[in-house]
Write a structure and sequence with these properties.
It is built from ten helices and 46 strands. It is α+β, with helices and mostly antiparallel strands. The strands form eleven sheets. Strands 26-25-24-23-22-21-28-27 form an eight-stranded parallel beta sheet, covered by helices on one side. Strands 3-2-4-9-6-7 form a six-stranded antiparallel beta sheet, with no helix packed on it. It has a five-stranded mixed beta sheet with strand order 32-38-37-34-35, with no helix packed on it. Strand 19 and strand 20 form a beta hairpin. The longest helix is centred in the middle third of the chain and has 18 residues. It is globular and about 90 Å long. This is Glycoside hydrolase family 2 protein.
Length: 803
């Protein structure tokens, strides 16, 4: 691995110069980094030889990032393409200067890659979630240069993550690619540590490699605060190609904290005599942390309850090939919910994610992709240990990272004979743990759900899925009380459950009376025991209650480290073809396109400082029940008190109290009128400000009977597309609010359905939610008829013609 740490430093200052060939602002004129994402060609061909692919004439024009599994992973056909493909680009370099080095930097190519320039193999990489550089200095020429990249995501048990993992392994060049031009005399591998930090004083140590230094070469390092003021500056010697930088007694540092993520900048310049030859720049955060034995987590000497979630790297329509803007939007939404911690599951993620976490104030659990598969052969071990080294070296400088995770469920479903042998696993896990501490003594190691190795790592998460894979959510307090005593540094990662957007129930299935309520560890074979994942209704109501109960416990436990909800966004998985949206893990707080579900607002009510009120639920606007039967309305809000009005009449004001359940006491028993019921919630803050939310619920006193047919309706969306909605109706034309069967959409003429998105309106096969399902259609022309069909096994061929 070459130049990877220096590349991260460059990224901090880099402007995304799409196709531009000018130097990056803020860097020395002699160094440049140019984004070359645009104008690539793609060939879906798994040949091993360049000659074969160059004779092909069906190359497709694309821009990066790109994956060939963007849609086929989440379509309705079992499996997804696991093979190799080729990428090609004409790289124009106006003039080659012998005083410079040239290299390509790939932020990620999944899973194995080979890079060729002008017919010469210049490098490659094993592991799809880590960046790598290839030196092209000796093979390029002035003018046009042909770059070819072969990327392969075929099944290979010797490369983690295991193919048995519960997520798709997207193939392709899934992240940005850069052309870096460096002077022969240049800096690289800038590594920063802050060994001493307090409120009054801080120390910064750094190492930097100096390539091809001369007799008159020297290094100047300067620290600037977040307002651009110089804090300290000094010159440092170069010894055997390295310079050790030290700044002591940095007075009254502005500490990096999740609530105030103050960042300094370390600028390092390389001089040859009086001439500046090169410059690197990197962000620095001063902070310290501690996991108290059998107690809470402390950041900068103060107790901080870790309020976390998990993030998979994918998005509707593009899979893992997300833009930086999409990465940033995910992290901003996580922060807006009030989270202060994110576990990157189950692999290192795009550089933009770490940059966002540094800037937004999100602590990070960074994870080696040893996810299931057990321990492997010698080649597997070499690959895995190399990946750990690359992860730590590339991400070392990010103040947001506090944990290097060594894996997840590592003993499950072994890929090698005897791969689940605890003795063998523990021997290698200890080797990895020692190596992680050798590479980075300042951070802690972690692992989840491998009990035999709990005492090897610094921080351990057992598996507690109260109310989903085991027991009742009401057993959560008992579970954490036991594990706090059992594990010195216990952090609960993964809890929650699936919810299908728009599915609601007046009486969600809780498992009471059917499931042992005081159990909390799920069985390895989950079909062997009754659990809510198997018998539940997947309603948004149930998941809201589950999270509400968990948060009520965690927010009021002064000795609890914190917990990490699974997962922030719905994501694709090959292991769940029968889900309400096929091949989707629907445990997200937002759907795969980033639209919040009801559960998002539960977390926001506990965690966010931004005043808001949300009436549960905006996806539940059709309800039914006998006349005079009181129904519950909950409002999720972080305001001190909330008033609820029905059709303009106040139903009273409730005081918020997080010790109460549900909704911290913000709930009302309501007598609905037949027909339209308009509700308004008004939240009042301590400062006297108000926020509000409104919904209109259509309520009926007549219960629907058995579904007899499907009908189709439509509306034109704000983006100009058509939202086609299928509704199950009974013999009287009433919507069947209890109908949950799958339906199948097809756009027959005049348009194109948005399919394979893995979203509530972007799946051609989907279970109904309270007797309703929708799909988005792009209409080709208003002058031609649009024809859409929906059917299932019970109801054949309902058609909608839009003239």
């Amino acid at each position: 691995m070459k130049e990877n740490i220096s590349h991260l430093a460059l990224i901090v200052l880099c402007v995304l110069l799409m196709g531009c060939n000018s130097s990056t602002d803020g860097l020395a004129k002699s160094r440049s980094i140019i984004n070359i994402n645009n104008d690539w060609l793609y060939l879906e061909n798994n040949s091993n030889t360049i000659i074969d692919v160059l004779h092909e004439n069906n190359w497709q024009e694309i821009n990066l990032p790109h994956t060939w599994n963007a849609l086929d992973a989440t379509d309705i056909v079992p499996g997804y393409r696991r093979s190799a493909s080729w990428y090609k680009k004409n790289l124009a370099i106006e003039k080659i200067d012998s005083g410079y080095n040239y290299q390509l930097y790939f932020e990620g190519a999944n899973v194995e890659s080979e890079v060729f320039v002008n017919g010469n193999k210049v490098g490659g990489h094993i592991g799809g979630y880590i960046g790598f550089s290839v030196d092209i200095t000796d093979v390029i020429k002035s003018g046009s240069n042909e770059v070819l990249v072969r990327v392969d995501n075929s099944y290979n048990p010797e490369v983690i993550p295991s193919q048995k993992s519960d997520f798709f392994i997207f193939g392709g060049i899934t992240r940005d690619v850069w052309l870096e031009t460096l002077p022969k005399q240049h800096l690289s591998n800038l590594k920063i540590s802050t060994p001493e930090v307090s409120e009054t004083n801080a120390e910064l140590l750094a190492e930097v490699s100096v390539n091809n230094s001369g007799l008159d070469s020297k290094v100047k390092a300067s620290i600037f605060d977040n307002e651009g003021n110089e804090v300290s500056s000094s010159f440092f010697d170069i010894v055997e190609g390295r310079s050790n930088i030290m700044f002591k007694n940095i007075q009254n540092p502005k500490l990096w904290h999740t609530s105030s993520p103050n960042l300094y900048t370390l600028k390092v310049k390389l001089f040859d005599g009086n001439d500046t030859k090169d410059e690197l720049s990197e962000k620095v955060g001063f902070r310290w942390f501690e996991f108290k034995d059998h107690g809470a987590f402390y950041l900068n000497g103060e107790r901080l309850l870790l309020r976390g979630t998990h993030r998979h790297e994918e998005h509707a329509g593009v899979g893992a090939a997300m833009s930086n803007a999409q990465h940033r939007a995910d992290m901003q939404l996580i922060k807006s919910m009030g989270a202060n911690f994110v576990r990157l599951a189950h692999y290192p993620q795009d550089p933009e994610v770490y940059k966002a976490c540094d800037e937004l104030g999100l602590l990070v659990w960074d994870e080696l992709p040893w996810c299931r598969g057990g321990v492997g052969n010698d080649t597997w071990k070499t690959n895995t240990k190399t990946m750990l080294k690359e992860i730590i070296e590339q991400n070392y400088n990010h103040p947001s990272i506090i944990l290097w995770s060594l894996g997840n469920e590592i003993y499950w479903l072994p890929d090698f004979e005897d791969g689940d042998n605890p003795e063998n696993i523990n021997a290698f896990l200890k080797e990895l743990n020692d190596y992680a501490h050798e590479l980075d003594p300042s951070r802690k190691t972690a692992i989840r759900k491998y009990y035999e190795g709990a005492d090897i790592v610094d921080v351990f998460s057992p598996s507690i899925w109260s109310g989903w894979y085991s027991g009742s959510y009401k057993s959560y307090q008992k579970a954490i009380d036991q594990y706090k005593k059992q594990y010195p540094h216990f952090l609960h990662a993964e809890y929650g459950g699936s919810s299908h957007v728009g599915r609601h129930s007046e009486n969600p299935i809780t498992g009471e009376g059917k499931i042992q309520s005081d159990g909390w560890e799920e069985a390895i074979v989950q079909t062997d025991v009754a659990n809510i994942a198997q018998i539940g209704d997947w309603s948004e109501n149930y998941i809201v209650d589950l999270f509400d109960w968990h948060l009520r416990i965690s927010e009021n436990d002064s000795t609890f480290v914190g917990n990490i909800q699974w997962a922030f966004k719905d994501f694709g998985t090959p292991l769940r073809p029968e889900n309400a949206i096929p091949y989707m893990n629907q445990k997200g707080l937002v759907d795969r396109a980033g639209k919040p579900k009801d559960a998002f607002y539960v977390f926001k009510s506990y965690w966010s400082d931004e005043p808001f009120a949300y009436i549960e639920s905006h996806t539940w606007k059709e309800r039914q029940g006998p006349k005079g039967k009181a129904r519950n309305i909950s409002v999720y809000s972080n305001c001190d008190e909330v008033e609820l009005l029905q059709n303009g009449k106040s139903l009273g004001t409730r005081k918020r109290n997080t010790l109460e359940f549900p909704a911290s006491g913000l709930n009302w028993d309501v007598s609905f009128v037949n027909g339209s019921n308009g509700f308004k919630a008004i939240g009042k803050t301590r400062a006297g400000d108000t926020v509000s939310d409104t919904i209109n619920i259509n309520y009926r006193y007549v219960k629907n009977s058995k579904a007899r047919s499907l009908k189709l309706d439509y509306k034109v969306m704000d983006n100009g597309n058509y939202l086609i909605t299928a509704i199950a109706i009974d013999g009287q034309g009433l919507r069947c609010l209890d109908y949950e069967e799958k339906v199948y959409f097809q756009c027959l003429n005049g348009g194109e359905a948005k399919v394979s998105q893995g979203t509530p309106t972007g799946s051609e096969v989907i279970e109904m939610a309270n007797g309703q399902a929708s799909i988005e259609i792009l209409r080709h022309s208003e002058d031609k008829q649009l024809q859409v069909m929906v059917l299932n096994q019970s109801f054949k061929g309902t058609y909608l013609n839009i003239e």
